[in-house]
Amino acid sequence: MIPFPSSTEVCIVGAGPSGLACALGLAARQIPFVIVDALEQGHNSSRAVLLQASALEALGALSPELSAELVSDGIQSKTWLATDPQDRPVFHLRMADLERHTKYAFFLLNPQHRVEHRMREYVQRGGNPIHWHKRVSSVREVAESAQYELQFESGDVLRARYIVAADGSKSFLRTVAGIPFIDPHTKKAAGPGPNDLSFVVADIVFEEPLPSNVPRDTLKMIVGTNGFILTAPIRDSSPSAGGNPAQNLFRVYFGVPDTPPRSPDAAYLQEILDTQGPGSHSALHAVAKIAKVLDSARYRTRMALVDKYVHRAQGGAYILLVGDAAHKHGPAGGQGMNMGICDGCELAQAIDEHRSAALTAEERGTRHDTVEILEAYSTRRRAVAREVMDMVERMTEVENGGAGWGPYFLLTALWFFFKMPFVNSWAACKISGLGHAKRT
Ligand SMILES: Cc1cc2nc3c(=O)[nH]c(=O)nc-3n(C[C@H](O)[C@H](O)[C@H](O)COP(=O)(O)OP(=O)(O)OC[C@H]3O[C@@H](n4cnc5c(N)ncnc54)[C@H](O)[C@@H]3O)c2cc1C
């Protein structure tokens, strides 16, 4: 049993991708921290599957070995092909255009739980344990020592100057900091609304023979009149696979107009594939048949963004937001985990700069708190989130397809624009997040 400390410099609450990225950044800078999570162990559910070049670059700057291992765990999708149900191309995004800027000129298809597993390995390898089963239940300021005191459900107590709120979209710490989570459309606190999206994420093994319009090496999306279907091939690394991994394992996203069942079964998913999936309206291809559903879940998302990522308590302690605690949106373009990782890496750098500035001030005998360093982090990452959310919204409009002239013109215009090399390069840069990379 690892003893739980009573004080530290930084407490990271949440060991998801954002918290882990921040932990790696702090460890690289030798800043003492404690990372806690309410779960009993890392989660294992089907969520993100796409890692973008910007997250790989950010992690690679901290540990090139980690990025290399993430890449070798996954499948490199060099393109993203979208078609309509008749198999006519809607757009074909070619990531090779990024080769001049990054060695990660692809979408990395690697399930979130496996990405987190690798990140945890690297955090722990640096001698930093992850303290599971530690749910923060209350926080109070200790102004005399410029610290917060965190109380856990386990009864433990921890003091820290900085709290990193990496506790996901329902963030408790965001509430403690009094930072509202606002729907950018209604400008009201995020709640159920017309922009909510329902979708299903399932890990599916398809039967052999797999129709060739479900590629084993690239992302493929079908934009229908009733939602979208995205197939992402993934490597089978489950212990049960042994030496015989499933060849046709895919993570499949289904955009659905109605409320799906809580854990959709093979019959429900096959019906969507039969009516809207690849091959459903094509004489050339058969529809892929489901052999097995390994995991499935429904999700509902709505957009929300905080107005600031930083809260300074009167005595000079901080709550600093990263990842889903600060922004949430739909899954289009696979951006959430990616942004969270980049938030975490940048926040570690900002904390380092803030501490160094405080030390210098102390040496000079002044007590100037350079809050502007942390505010700059907040302003920059919020602007990135706003831009990404706009892009996700546009992508969601495309993915939702629909009947009538409006969607028809939108899809035709896309097909036309993506033929132009500079449009392709611009879109690849945007979606990869490289355009937002921090210049240091
Ligand atoms: C279906 C689906 C598909 C997605 N697809 C993609 C994709 O392809 N690409 C992509 O980039 N993103 C995708 N995302 C988004 C991505 O999953 C999230 O953006 C990402 O998980 C956010 O990471 P996080 O670390 O900020 O929060 P989380 O992963 O939610 O982690 C928060 C952690 O905080 C812990 N916690 C919460 N409260 C407390 C507390 N009080 N005390 C202690 N611990 C606490 C939780 O247990 C949890 O482990 C998808 C999301 C969904 C739902």
TrEMBL record:
Residues 8-390 form the FAD-binding domain. It comes from the Eukaryota. GO terms for molecular function: FAD binding; monooxygenase activity. Keywords: FAD, Flavoprotein, Monooxygenase, Oxidoreductase. InterPro entries: FAD-bd (IPR002938), FAD-dep_Monooxygenase_BioMet (IPR050493), FAD/NAD-bd_sf (IPR036188). Pfam families: FAD_binding_3. Belongs to the paxM FAD-dependent monooxygenase family. This is FAD/NAD(P)-binding domain-containing protein. It comes from Mycena maculata.
